[in-house]
C-alpha cells in the first residue's frame, strides 16, 4: 500500500474522479435547466375540472396543470381547510394556470385533490395566445366578421385559424410600417430639430437656412400623414374579425382578433403535431419581442444586445490586452516597476464587478460622455447623447473588467515561445518589430484566443456592472437600425443576464415567469457556448497554421 501511494497513482485517480464529478455536476445542471426551460414550450393538456369548495358549492376551472406537490394534512388543517373522510398523511395539490386574466383575480389557482369532483380534457378546448392579458382558455362558439357570423364558411377551426393569420399578418405590416418608414421620418424630424438648434447656437441660422429646414420638415410631415393613414387602415382591417368563446364561467366572451397571435387545441393534438408546435414556440421565443412586462413573448432584443455588446467588447479588449502583454514581456525591463504592474494586473482580476460598474458610470458616462456632449452635441442638451448609459460604455467597462484575463493569457503564450526563435530572426536581419509581427504574435495567437475565450465567457454572464452603464428592462429600439450612422452606440440595450434577473425577481407574476427564467438561462448558456466554440475553432485553426514555426 505504501509503495502504491509513493507511485502517485492514488493522486491520479483522485484527480480523475474530481474531474469526472465536476463534469457530471455541470452536465446535470445544464440538463436540469434545459429540461425545466424547454418543457415550457411543449403544449400541455388543458383540464376542465369541477371543484367543490368548503361550503359545498362547486365551480368549474379550465387551465393547465402547472405544478404538483404533496402537502401534509396537518398543515392544511392548521390553515383551516376541512378535509372530512380523508385519512392519508399527505395529499396532492395542483397549481392550475387558468389564464383569462381580465375575468379572474389570479392567473393561478391551487386545487386540492379531494376537492376535484370531475376532471376531463375535452378535445374542443382552445388556447388563444394573445398580445395582451396572457392566454385565454375556452370553447370556440362562433367567428364573427363585423359582428356577423362566418362560421358557415367551413370548419370553424379552419376559419378561425385563417382569420387569426390574417390579423397577425396585418398587425405585422402595421408594425413594420411603424418601425421602419414612420420611425425613419421621426428620426429625420429630430435631426432637423437638432440642426436648427446647432445653427442657432453658432449664430448661423439665416432666413434661408430656416426656410430650407422648414420646407424639409413640411415635406416630412406630409409623408408622415400618408403613412399614418396607411397605418390606421391596416389597424382597421385587423380589427374587423372577432371570435366568441365560452369560458370557465359558462359565459360567452367576444375577443378581438387583432390581439390574437395563435390558437391551438392541445387536447386534440398528436405527438408530431405537438412536436411541430414545440419548435414553433421555440422559434417565437428567440425571434420575437417580449410582452407583458417580459413574462410573455420572446427575447430577441436581449439576444441581440448580449451578442452585440460581447462582440464590441471583444474588439476593444483584444488589441489593448495584446499590446499591453507584448510591452510587458518584450519591451519592459525586468525591474520592480514591471513586477508591480504585473501584480496590479493580477489583482484587477479580483476586483468585484460592481466596482467596475461604478467606475464606468462615474468616469465613462458622466465624465467622458458628458464632455463629448458638451463638445460635439451641444444642440441636444440638456438631453444627453453619450452622457447617459449606453451600449458603448457597457462594452468599454466590460473590456476593462476582462483586460487582466487577456493580458495574463497572452503573456503566458509569449513566455512559451523559445528565445532561440527571437534570436534567430534577429540574426537573419529582421528588426524586433518584424520579429514580433511575423513570428511572435502568430505563434502566440492561440494563447490570445484563449484569453479572448475566457473574456467572452465572463463578460457574457456579467449583470451587476451593466445595470449601471447601459442595460435596461425594455429597450424600445435596437442599437442597430436603418438610420444613419446605423450603429447607435449611445442607445441602451437589453441583456439576457439582466432579463433573467428581471423576470425572476422583479416580475409581477412570479409563477408565470419561472419557466422563462430557466428558458432564458439555458439560452444564455447556449450563446456563451456558441461564442466559445467559435473562438476555440479559430484558435485551433491558428494553432495548426503556425505549428510549423515551432520547428
From TrEMBL:
The keyword Membrane applies. Residues 210-237 form a coiled coil. The chain crosses the membrane at residues 12-35, 299-328, 340-366, 386-408, 436-457, 516-538. InterPro entries: MetI-like (IPR000515), MetI-like_sf (IPR035906), Phosphate_PstA (IPR005672). It comes from the Bacteria. GO terms for cellular component: plasma membrane. It is found in: Cell inner membrane; Cell membrane. GO terms for biological process: phosphate ion transmembrane transport. Keywords: Cell membrane, Coiled coil, Membrane, Transmembrane, Transmembrane helix, Transport. Belongs to the binding-protein-dependent transport system permease family. CysTW subfamily. This is Phosphate transport system permease protein PstA. It comes from Pseudidiomarina terrestris. The lineage of its organism: Bacteria, Pseudomonadati, Pseudomonadota, Gammaproteobacteria, Alteromonadales.
Amino acid at each position: 500500500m505504501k509503495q502504491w501511494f509513493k507511485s502517485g497513482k492514488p493522486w491520479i485517480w483522485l484527480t480523475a474522479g474530481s474531474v469526472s464529478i465536476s463534469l457530471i455536476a455541470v452536465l446535470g445542471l445544464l440538463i436540469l435547466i434545459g429540461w425545466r426551460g424547454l418543457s415550457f414550450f411543449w403544449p400541455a393538456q388543458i383540464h376542465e375540472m369541477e371543484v367543490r369548495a368548503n361550503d359545498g358549492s362547486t365551480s368549474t376551472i379550465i387551465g393547465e396543470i402547472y405544478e404538483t406537490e404533496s402537502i401534509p394534512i396537518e398543515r392544511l388543517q392548521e390553515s383551516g381547510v376541512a378535509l372530512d373522510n380523508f385519512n392519508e398523511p399527505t395529499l396532492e395539490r395542483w397549481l392550475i394556470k387558468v389564464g383569462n386574466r381580465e375575468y379572474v383575480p389570479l392567473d393561478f389557482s391551487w386545487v386540492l385533490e379531494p376537492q376535484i369532483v370531475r376532471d376531463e380534457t375535452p378535445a374542443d378546448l382552445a388556447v388563444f395566445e394573445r398580445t395582451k392579458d396572457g392566454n385565454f382558455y375556452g370553447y370556440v362558439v362562433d367567428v364573427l366578421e363585423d359582428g356577423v357570423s362566418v362560421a358557415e364558411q367551413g370548419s370553424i377551426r379552419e376559419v378561425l385559424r385563417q382569420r387569426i393569420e390574417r390579423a397577425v399578418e396585418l398587425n405585422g405590416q402595421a408594425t413594420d410600417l411603424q418601425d421602419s418608414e414612420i420611425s425613419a421620418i421621426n428620426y429625420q424630424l429630430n435631426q432637423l430639430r437638432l440642426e436648427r438648434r446647432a445653427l442657432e447656437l453658432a449664430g448661423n441660422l439665416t432666413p434661408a437656412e430656416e426656410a430650407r429646414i422648414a420646407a424639409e420638415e413640411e415635406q416630412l410631415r406630409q409623408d408622415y400623414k400618408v403613412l399614418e393613414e396607411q397605418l390606421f387602415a391596416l389597424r382597421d382591417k385587423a380589427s374587423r374579425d372577432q371570435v366568441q368563446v365560452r369560458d370557465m364561467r359558462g359565459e360567452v366572451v367576444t375577443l378581438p382578433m387583432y390581439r390574437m397571435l395563435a390558437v391551438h387545441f392541445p387536447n386534440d393534438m398528436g405527438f408530431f403535431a405537438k412536436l411541430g408546435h414545440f419548435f414553433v414556440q421555440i422559434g417565437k421565443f428567440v425571434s420575437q419581442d417580449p410582452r407583458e412586462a417580459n413574462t410573455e413573448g420572446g427575447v430577441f432584443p436581449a439576444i441581440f444586445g448580449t451578442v452585440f455588446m460581447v462582440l464590441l467588447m471583444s474588439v476593444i479588449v483584444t488589441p489593448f490586452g495584446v499590446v499591453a502583454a507584448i510591452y510587458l514581456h518584450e519591451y519592459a525591463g525586468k525591474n520592480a516597476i514591471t513586477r508591480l504592474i504585473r501584480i496590479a494586473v493580477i489583482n484587477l482580476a479580483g476586483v468585484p464587478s460592481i466596482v467596475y460598474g461604478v467606475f464606468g458610470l462615474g468616469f465613462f458616462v458622466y465624465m467622458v460622455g458628458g464632455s463629448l456632449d458638451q463638445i460635439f452635441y451641444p444642440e441636444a442638451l440638456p438631453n444627453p447623447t453619450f452622457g447617459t448609459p449606453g451600449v458603448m460604455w457597457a462594452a468599454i467597462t466590460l473590456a476593462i473588467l476582462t483586460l487582466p484575463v487577456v493580458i495574463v493569457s497572452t503573456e503566458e503564450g509569449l513566455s512559451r515561445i523559445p528565445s532561440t526563435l527571437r534570436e534567430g530572426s534577429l540574426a537573419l536581419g529582421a528588426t524586433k518589430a518584424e520579429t514580433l509581427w511575423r513570428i511572435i504574435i502568430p505563434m502566440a495567437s492561440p494563447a490570445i484566443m484563449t484569453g479572448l475565450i475566457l473574456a467572452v465567457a465572463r463578460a457574457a454572464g456579467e449583470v451587476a456592472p451593466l445595470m449601471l452603464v447601459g442595460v435596461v428592462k425594455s429597450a424600445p429600439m435596437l442599437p442597430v437600425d436603418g438610420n444613419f450612422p446605423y450603429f447607435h452606440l449611445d442607445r441602451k440595450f437589453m441583456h439576457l443576464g439582466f432579463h433573467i434577473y428581471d423576470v425572476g425577481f422583479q416580475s409581477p407574476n412570479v409563477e408565470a415567469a419561472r419557466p422563462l427564467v430557466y428558458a432564458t438561462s439555458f439560452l444564455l448558456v447556449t450563446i456563451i457556448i456558441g461564442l466559445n466554440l467559435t473562438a476555440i475553432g479559430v484558435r485551433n485553426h491558428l494553432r495548426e497554421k503556425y505549428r510549423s514555426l515551432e520547428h
